[in-house]
Amino acid sequence: xxxxxxxxxxxxxxxxxxxxxxxxxxxxxxxxxxxxxxxxxxxxxxxxxxxxxxxxxxxxxxxxxxxxxxxxxxxxxxxxxxxxxxxxxxxxxxxxxxxxxxxxxxxxxxxxxxxxxxxxxxxxxxxxxxxxxxxxxxxxxxxxxxxxxxxxxxxxxxxxxxxxxxxxxxxxxxxxxxxxxxx
Length: 183
What we know:
The protein is about 35% helix and about 15% strand. By secondary structure, it is α+β, with helices and mostly antiparallel strands. The longest helix is centred in the first third of the chain and has 14 residues, at about 55-65.
């Protein structure tokens, strides 16, 4: 099993528009409910590598903007960073979908499968699609747009209205972002 995503080429463009303009551009607009960004210590030796501080802080900011107090109840689908296999597990805990130390076992039990209460990375994530480097976050957001519009094809998850995209820039940076989108 592959533990790190292979590099891939790709380009993604997301068009941001006012509500008025969006209604003239598409009959399926997707709304940004919240966004957050955070950066951990720039010094590698000062980081807690077992914790995803940037994900915790950026999620707090996005949840506050979106009015979310319980992410597991509010979020229908998530696309989160899995550039390295352990990052998905780490992010599940940092984003508040489970308690510290529970994500690995919950994932093995099917907690993140497409037909679960919290489908995670149904796109295949970076491990399945490839590492788009600086565009990884946009790839996570793009998958949510497809899901929320009902346009995800064979990997469409039914009944999703609110999604979370989480991205990590990667070493040596320790910055990341969270975006909450809704249909």
